[in-house]
Design brief:
This protein is α/β, with parallel strands linked by helices. Helices cover 39% and strands 22% of the residues. The longest helix has 21 residues. It is elongated, with a radius of gyration of 25 Å. The chain starts with a strand and ends with a helix. Bound molecules: manganese (II) ion (MN). The site of manganese (II) ion has 5 residues, from loops.
């Protein structure tokens, strides 16, 4: 989808045609110039002066699939009672951009004509009041429209809004059910569809096997060429890799046929398959698909959404699992990995990921599955977990610092990422567990906590952020108050 954002400028008839003409010209110029600096086009729609103009443009925005959100601004004063009907009907993410056309007050030029034309300082306050009064979920961004930091903030907000558009349209394909007895991967699929838009449905593993049997050698040869270009083949067991290619092609065909952007499977249900899809799932994730192991459809969906919110529409975001701790005093880390399925978008760029085959004792693997093995890159990142609290959803986000793994771990046959959670390992774990965060997460290097907060606000779900400043005491209080607030909502 070629997403766009709509620019709606508020005004009124009070100032006369000349002023309105100038506002219109400037709004066009701003949308044009901003579009060059933002990841998505900003389309100037109207300088609105009446209730009907506002209601009409909002209705159009609601029904245009390519419109991922609206950005409003008041060059002049725009009495906000005329915005009530439109804003009350708005179903798209909403950003109030508080800026003005001129950067500085022109000392000699400034007179009452200038003041009539350039009054965003109070126009934006009147506009802000009505959104507060209506309890609108919104983002307020203030600053000069030509400044890079402002472009960056609008860019990030736009990506969150695109995450909402992807969410509203998202289909998840489940091969089999969740891993038996696991609690956190459960959830209310009806509630999630009503709240986030996700269509989560199941397909038989037998249908996938049938699809795999229909894949021909020419298709496998082509994907093998692709693997060879992207990855280092570090095994003699070419048949195992070809089998993963067969799995990838079959899964992809089914995903495309059903228009699904995410999928799950579980090692407990591989009936008719020789290997758990490892390399297959990893390469699909590298191509933008979301995945969750053990039937975890929530993390599969969140992976797809956060990938779409990331750099270039397919960023460094991946399904992840906290596996093991390194508890050496003063040198504490969490080691993240999965049985097989870690997305190579996390890989450090100094080496190509290696394709290896190893025995996998868990599950019903008749043959050794091929998988990508690599080290994750260094850098600031977040881990995110969506949990079902019973009747509502909670999104938990923790700031982490990824490091080059501090030891080579030559016998570990899977991709690995190592990090320190904030504020430190012990408090970070205590906070995460207190909030009910899952063992599965989405780890992202390029989606920020602020973007996830905006995403959660747009979709009206609870957001919990564990940062360098979080304490267990403060978090417990926050969770208690949140619980009350969400019960009252
Ligand atoms: Mn797992």
């Amino acid at each position: 989808m070629n997403y766009k954002f709509w620019f709606i400028v508020g005004s009124q008839f009070l100032y006369g045609d000349e002023v309105l003409k100038t506002v219109d010209e400037r709004a066009q110029e701003m949308a044009r110039e901003l579009s060059k600096r933002l990841p998505y086009e900003l389309v100037y729609k109207v300088t609105a002066k009446t209730n009907k103009e506002i209601t009409d443009v909002i209705k159009q925005a609601n029904y245009d699939d390519s419109c991922a959100g609206v950005i409003t601004w008041c060059h002049t004063f725009s009495p906000s009672k005329m915005w009530i009907n439109g804003l009350a009907a708005l179903q798209k993410p909403y950003c109030h951009f508080a800026t003005q056309y001129n950067r500085e007050i022109p000392n000699d030029e400034i007179d009452m004509d200038f003041m009539n034309l350039n009054q965003a300082a109070h126009g934006d306050r009147e506009h802000g009041f009505i959104a507060a009064r209506l309890r609108m979920p919104r983002k307020v961004i203030a600053g000069y429209w030509q400044d890079a930091d402002v472009h960056n903030r609008i860019s990030n907000w736009m990506k969150s809004a695109v995450g909402v558009a992807v969410s509203k349209d998202l289909k998840v394909m489940r091969f089999g059910d969740n891993m038996r007895e696991v609690a956190v991967t459960e959830g209310d699929k009806v509630e999630v569809q009503a709240k986030l838009g996700w269509q989560v449905n199941t397909w038989a593993v037998g249908d996938l096997v049938k699809e795999m049997n229909a894949v021909n050698d020419t298709e496998i040869d082509a994907l093998m060429e692709d693997y060879t270009a992207k990855y280092d083949i570090a095994t003699d067991n070419i048949d195992a890799i070809r089998y993963q290619a067969r799995e990838e092609i079959a899964i992809k065909k089914m995903l495309e046929r059903e228009d699904c952007l995410a999928f799950t499977n579980t090692f407990q249900d591989l009936y008719g398959m020789e290997q758990l899809p490892g390399l297959a799932s990893q390469d699909l994730m590298a191509n933008g698909y979301g995945y969750g192991g053990e039937g975890d459809w929530k993390v599969a969906a969140m992976t797809a959404i956060m990938k779409a919110m990331g750099e270039g529409g397919n960023g460094a975001s991946a399904f992840m699992e906290d596996y093991t701790y390194h508890l050496a005093k003063g040198n504490e880390y969490s080691l993240g990995a999965h049985m097989l399925e870690v997305c190579p978008s996390l890989a450090a760029s100094d080496k190509k990921p290696r394709i290896e085959t190893h025995h996998l004792g868990i599950g019903m693997n008749e043959k050794d599955p091929a998988r990508l093995v690599f080290e994750g890159k260094e850098g600031d990142a977040i881990v995110v977990s969506l949990v079902d609290m019973g009747g509502r959803l909670r999104l938990i986000c923790q700031d982490i610092v990824c490091v080059k793994p501090i030891m080579p771990m030559p016998n570990l046959p899977v991709a690995r990422v190592m990090w320190q959670p904030l504020p430190n390992l012990a408090t970070g774990i205590e906070c995460w567990i207190t909030a009910g965060g899952a063992h599965h997460t989405v780890l992202s290097y390029d989606v920020t906590a602020e973007q996830m907060k905006d995403w959660a606000r747009m979709l009206d779900i609870e957001f919990v952020h564990i940062t360098k400043d979080t304490t267990v005491d403060a978090l417990e209080k926050e969770l208690f108050l949140n619980d009350l607030a969400w019960k009252l909502k």
